[in-house]
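STRUCTURE REQUEST FORM
Protein name: Phytoene desaturase family protein
Source organism: Halosolutus amylolyticus
Requested output: structure tokens
Priority: standard
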Amino acid sequence: MESLAGESVVVIGAGVGGLSTACYLADAGADVRVIEKNEQLGGRASRLERDGFRFDMGPSWYLMPDVFERFFAEFDRTPTDYYDLTHLDPHYRIFFKDGDRVDVTADIDRTKALFEEYEEGAGEALERYLEKSKENYEVGMEHFVYEDRSRLRDYLDLDVARQARGLSLLGSMQGHVEKYFDHPKLQQIMQYTLVFLGGSPKNTPALYNLMSHVDFNLGVWYPENGLGGVIDGIVDLGRELGVEYDTDRPATAIKGREGAFLVETPDGPLRPDLVVSNADYAHTEQELLPPERRGYDADYWESRTYAPSAFLLYLGVEGDVEDLEHHTLVLPTDWEEHFDQIFEDPQWPGDPAYYLCVPSKTDDSVAPEGHSNLFVLVPIAPGLDDTPERRQEYRDLILEDIAANTGTDLRDRIVVEETFCVEDFADRYNSFKGTALGMAHTLRQTSLFRPPHRSKAVEGLYFTGSYTTPGIGVPMCLISGELTAEKVIEDYGRPKPTDNVQ
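Status: completed
Returned output:
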């Protein structure tokens, strides 16, 4: 690898993409400093601690373990150098609001039998579906995720065409799933992972059926100390490589250019050679850069389709929650209305689909003895009116819905309670319209149609994180860090000096 020795880099924002980029750049020899506006590192993967309870504030699913293994292997480490993993079984439980309940387990034969109960032939259909999903995953990851094809000419290549042959590139997830399953509940089981991509069955490309390989074949895991433990591991790796971190230090402006940047902060300016922004892409361009140095105007950002925001309840509860699993989904029998109320006619969902996480089922350290730790996540449209009165009303609706549909009444047992919603995402993370994830993975916002890693207007300024390729999610942001670092090294790396041979 070429060397960045002598180059100084400031990374703005300590989300997963920023932390990943910092590791790669430091490993290449750069002098790297990460600045973070909040009090802790991790971005949306922050922790909330109250009265003996410890909550992962954002991501809570450890998926795609191969991506984490590859990331640490780049630095001659393994994930187990930093945290242990527990394979969850069942992977998750689903409560349908008609009283039905299913567990999706690590045993694929049991899952095939479960599908067969709903629809004759669905077990074999699942096997075919997962074969296609595995093919899409293996080809897609190797040739279209780890290789950043950010320009149209990158696709006008015979080798690319050969690799893409057979991939489910066009069409929607809804249409793809309907080719295999008629029963609406089976369709929902195959589509729930779209929540991790910030899309709906109608607007997410069929290519993302690869997420079913992630779910059914690669498994669902719990890292020691939660996703916060993974962040600790990445931060520790960065320190070992020489990265320096400043918390409570927001960037307020980016001035200058390659070799002579000025990053303004309340604690004084920083003067790096290069800048990488892991802050919200729209915030960086609209708030940190002057108009003449922006790659996109305000109309561009307004015209994008954004992933949902979320209504979150962090709850510390007395006693057990026996009917809930570590990961639990509660789904209406027809969830189309909920997606329409996110993407088509934004409003607070009246009959919501939502997710419950109970890490205390697996990890005793996240709650005091005799208590349960759980949080509730309801996907909602970004930009909704988020008032204290609306939160209280929705909190009551959700707790009543949990009691009615899971048999778990939490209302008289809550000892710790915090909410997080649209305004909090906007305030804490400078998130455009309070989206929880960034730009959705629609067909027109996938691959080369996402904003680039290199600034379109400022030489020496780069972007990383969920707005760039490959997109949304912790594994994708880890890979985004690698892709961003590759661009920096390609532009500014120099051959490593070698000893003269006499």
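Reviewer notes: The chain has a mean pLDDT of 92. The longest strand covers residues 309-318.
Form closed.
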